Amino acid sequence: MTATERDEKQPRALSAVPMSDLLAACAAASAVSTPPREPAAEPGEGPRRAA
Length: 51
What we know:
Layout: H1 3-8, H2 19-33
């Protein structure tokens, strides 16, 4: 193996955190940071106006 071939190889990244933990953390962050949706209006019911 030449020096050029050795330098071209990408180092393997090792993670100390399992993928399942990363996905769980992302799901939890999304749930906490997403505001609740307003309930959908019933058909025929428009926006309420002040009287």
